Structure formats: structure tokens, C-alpha cells
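Reviewers asked in the last cycle whether our approach scales beyond single polypeptides. To address this, we selected a multi-component target totalling 323 residues and predicted its structure end to end. The input consisted of the following lines:
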Amino acid sequence: MKLPLRFLLPAVAFAALVGFFIVGLQKDPGEIRSPLIGKPAPAFSLESLGDPAWRVGSADFAGRPWLLNVWATWCGGCREEHQTLLAIARENRLPMMGLNWRDDRNLALRWLEQLGNPYVAVAYDPEGRTAIDWGVYGAPETFLIGADGRVLQKQIGPITPEIWQRDFVPHLQAAGGEG
Amino acid sequence: MRIVTLAAAGLLAFQALAVDTGQAFTDPAQQARYEHLIRELRCLVCQNQSIADSNASLASDLRREVREMMLAGRSDAEIRAFMTERYGDFVLYKPPVAPRTWLLWLAPALLLLGGIGVAGMVVLRRARAAKSDPAALDEEPGPS
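The resulting structure, written as C-alpha cells, was:
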């Protein structure tokens, strides 16, 4: 039996709509792909968290891959990912810089004292200007910058060992790191 | 009664807080331009608010950037470009017209045309049916 078009058409349209919803609803609207990926990392030079007389910046690790982790003591996800950051730092594959975002210096220093410090250096950005240049909209965020100074990967939200292995490590191996 | 008044006052106060009402510029034309711009930019933390409506700290940082760029004499287009370079097109409430957004922009017109087409076909078919056999119309299932 051939179904008349006027039954078939709405059914097909409905199925298409359901298809869109199935795909669309599984996406996280909170995750906005960074337009920065593949572009040169924004340059910055900020006070060091630990020593205001010391400047830390994007030039410090020029010529080698490095990580930039945006964190703050008011950020719950940052506490969640801290153990993973420490584990990544222990791997000693590449230096990790912290960007302390819109935070209180003393609280931030106490946090590192209590939880451990995975960072080689921490830039202090209380006004959030550098964070805006990097398109940061919620901590934690983690960027991988390649040896050529381009942003290779961005993680929005707490990083886990799985995410690290899946999204970051392949870039390091492709770049000829010790992998 | 007092509690109701208090609650109402609280609600009103909350609403007043939720919007950035501070004068950023003394020049009314500049102020209008500023308000227009911050209404066009989406707050990325609270995605259904513009940075004009949001109290989030990121929104206030972005308002500050807009203000400073205006003071530096940047054009609206430059300010929008500054935002999209960092946050992508998503930061604009109004997506740009580009090949990858043509479908988005044309969809309403396409749907309207499709609707007109379907309606036209139905009307034509009925008219033809009525002409060839006026009684056929009464056989249509309907609320009888």
C-alpha cells in the first residue's frame, strides 16, 4: 500500500526534527568553541602571583609547548581538577603556567600552599584583562600552546586524566615531543 | 501585608540591580551608542543575557572593555571584531551574514515560501475537485 504524500511528508519532517533534537540536545551549550584555536596565542606580561616585582608572560616559554591554566580560588571546578594538574606537572612533559583570574592574591597563595603547586609560574590577573584576550569566560580553562606559539587545544571546565590523554597528549606526540 | 510590600520591594530592587544603569558617558549620544553596543553582546556565562543585563563579573569586565575602546575612539565594527576574535560569533546576539549562516538567515523566508506553496496546492486541488464534483467536498472528513 502506498501512503499518500500528505501523511508521509509530515512524518518525514517530524523524523528530521527529532534527528536535529537528538543531536542538538546532546551538545553542551556552555561549551563555545574558541576562535583562538590555530591562532597565535595572545601575548601578555603580568605580575607574578608570588612576587609583584617579577613579570611573567607568554614569552617565557617561547619555542616550546606549554600549558596555560586559568584558575581562581572562587572556582569550584578548579579545586576539582587540581589533583589532575598536579599529576600532569609530575609527568614533567611541558611547563604549566597558571593565570590567576579575578582573585585575591593572599587567598590564591594560600590555595597553592595547601593544595600543592603544579605551576612553573603564575600570572596574576585581578582585573581579568588578559583573560578577556584569551577569550576566557569561565574558570577553569586550560590551553595548550605549541612550540610555534599557536593555540592547539582548549579545555573548558575541569580537566580529567581522560581528557588530558584524549585531547592534549596526541598534540604533544604529533609535535614530536617525547610523548 | 508588610511582608508582601517588603517582598515586592525586594523583587523590584533585584530587577534594578540586574541592569547596568550607571551612566558611562556624560555625552548622551555616546551613552546611547554604549548602551546599544552592550545590548548586542552576549554574556557568555549567562548565555541568555546581554552584557548590559548581566551582573556576572565577566559581563562587567566586558562592559569596561567596551567603554575603554569607545574612549579610545574605536568604531562599533572594531569593538565587535574585538569581541568575536576572542569569543567567536556566539558573543553577538545577531549572527553575521556569511555563507555558513545563509541557511539561518534564509530559513524564515524559505519556510514562508514552502507554506505558501503547500497552501496554494491545497487550494488549487480543492478548487479543481469542487469544479469536477461539488459533492466530493462534503465527503472530506471533518467535524460533522
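Residues 153 and 168 of chain A are 7 Å apart (CA to CA). We regard this as preliminary and will revisit it once experimental data from Aim 1 are available.
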